[in-house]
Amino acid sequence: MKIVVCIKQVPDTTEIKINPATGTLIRDGVPSIMNPDDKGGLEMALRLKEQYNAHVTVITMGPPQAEAILREAFAMGVDRAILLTDRKFAGADTLATSNALAGALRRIDHDLIIAGRQAIDGDTAQVGPQMAEHLKLPQVSYVTDLKYDGKKYFTIKKETEEGYQILEVEGTCVLTVLASANQARYMSVAGIMTAFDREMEIWSADMIDVEEVKLGLSGSPTRVKKSFTKAQKGAGQVFEVDAEEAVGIITSKLKEKFII
Amino acid sequence: MDFSLTKQEELFMQMIRSFAENEVKPLAADIDDQERFPMETVEKMAKIGLMGIPVPVEYGGQGGTNQIYSMAVEELSRVCGTTGVIVSAHTSLCVAPILENGTEEQKMKYLPKLASGEWIGAFGLTEPNAGTDAAMQQTTAVDAGDKWILNGSKIFITNAGYAHVYIVMAMTDKSLGTKGISAFIVEKGMKGFSFGKKEKKMGIRGSATCELIFENCEVPKENLLGTLGKGFGIAMKTLDGGRIGIAAQALGIAQGAMDETIKYTKERKQFGKAIAAFQNTQFQMADLETKVQAARLLVRSAAFKKDSGLPYSADAAMCKLFAAETAMEVTTKAVQFHGGYGYTREYPIERMMRDAKITEIYEGTSEVQRMVIAAKLFK
Ligand SMILES: Cc1cc2nc3c(=O)[nH]c(=O)nc-3n(C[C@H](O)[C@H](O)[C@H](O)COP(=O)(O)OP(=O)(O)OC[C@H]3O[C@@H](n4cnc5c(N)ncnc54)[C@H](O)[C@@H]3O)c2cc1C
Ligand SMILES: Cc1cc2nc3c(=O)[nH]c(=O)nc-3n(C[C@H](O)[C@H](O)[C@H](O)COP(=O)(O)OP(=O)(O)OC[C@H]3O[C@@H](n4cnc5c(N)ncnc54)[C@H](O)[C@@H]3O)c2cc1C
After folding, report:
1. For a FRET experiment, which of A18, A203, A207, B182 has its CA 20 to 30 Å from that of B244?
2. Which positions in chain A touch B72 (Cβ < 8 Å)?
């Protein structure tokens, strides 16, 4: 089984500060990390590698510094790493990003494609599903567990707003995975020692299977009209009481506000 | 001269810091309180290679450097001194002497299991009457043809009970003094080998410190480590390496206390100001930070020399002496900056102070380090 995992380098938002004057993120000096959902997806792939000897490739589109998460992936145990980097990719929105990734995926053998559900910076959760559409593959989003029968079927647990669903999928598909699916492994010391000796492939726009107009700024229909900081909601009030009393409190509050 | 971390060291730091923060720190107060050996942490460390860092890949190790190994001990100790010494005693005092003195058969037999963490290692030199004066060994080993027969006891042995492999010093010829001491590889379960009293300690309370008892203990002939009569030299060289590990432990404890104190003094307010705003706090903290950095440079330089195959015996003594005394000073002052809260177990700082003290004692007291350094000066 050949698995490709799409990983993205993102600023560590737990360390991000907001410039109070402009309301924008201060990106300087913020460490970059592998997107947490992607790490969950990578762990899922590495477990299939351990159990079924799957071959795991990671791919990222980004600036040359994105090499860092590919080295980290090597140290976690992946077999192959590809960096899609080219000025032609610059200014990509989610559509152009997914087109670029799909273009690369057409050039890589795959039986399963795994992406994160959502990147903690862009936050759209669009890239995985868009990629599946470009590649005309079935997709399962919000995946929290996956089992393989060793031959043909994946049994997949998918989170929904109300609970979860269990799906059975046959053959090649795209999954978007949640970080909460598992606890991703740490890099091993031996993996770290050899990570920088491994061959990282660097692919440019002309090495992938997609029309150039679909890439970068020219392939990005999204236009940012205005960006602003959301007004902070006040802290909620917590009542630690039993259910009956709680119902009373809630209904009286709702009445107070003329909602009911 | 290049003081920056290599790419591997940087990536390692990223990993070990998150491992220490997420897996080690949450247990630190509890294992101290319960005096509990954190076996689950050892298993997690084994999985990612922390029990075999400076061991070549062909012996089942991680192919790492002593520099990376000392960084591991530092970062673990920064949140938990107990976890730091478990790795240090295992790696420096058991794995290293087998790697450096073992026959090919001994290395193939012991290193893969030790480096993978399946087995834990320990080292027995100290006896009731042979502490600083380690040459006064009373444990004996007698050649009984196809085996050695060991009699005697060792005290204060780190990892004892949990370890499977013990490097044990014993007299093979009393008339020869230190030249009559030999080193042996003893396995848990060998006939006549048992454990005695478990110590109750001031600090590093989660680590096991226990007596080893040899009553006509039968050790296979091939388990002599190095040549006959060379045990004292092996022990001293092993301790040279071990001192880098303990210095790294002390450095980590000192850094951990700095971290806690910076955080606390910024939050705690008296006289309408953060404690950190008082000049006394700032000047003392500046001095402490300078000492911690100096200790770090001494540790890195000693590890560099060991990795480069240069003599490092005095360097190891200096880094241990300085880092241990720095750890004691930093943690003592850190408790002071925390006031009454620092004296309680609500905060980790009193534990750090208790943990720091041992670094001035084991693997040679600070007095012994001064003897080693002076011996080089006046040779
Ligand atoms: C300064 C800035 C300006 C932006 N402006 C726009 C804009 O104008 N319009 C717009 O639509 N978007 C914009 N973006 C978002 C940017 O295009 C997205 O970051 C990118 O397209 C991916 O979308 P996402 O982050 O929402 O990823 P998501 O869709 O949340 O990511 C889901 C998953 O897709 C995969 N994935 C996503 N990106 C990559 C990648 N580069 N390489 C490999 N795998 C990946 C990962 O597995 C990820 O977990 C901007 C981003 C920044 C930082
Ligand atoms: C928690 C713990 C773990 C340990 N782990 C191990 C282990 O794994 N393996 C092992 O073999 N040992 C271990 N030890 C033993 C440790 O190395 C010894 O305790 C240490 O070497 C000191 O020996 P001692 O306790 O007999 O003190 P003593 O030798 O009795 O020393 C008492 C004091 O006298 C000073 N002193 C002694 N001689 C001189 C001198 N000539 N000049 C000036 N001052 C002197 C010492 O510096 C010290 O301050 C451990 C000890 C502890 C407490």
Report:
1. B182
2. 189
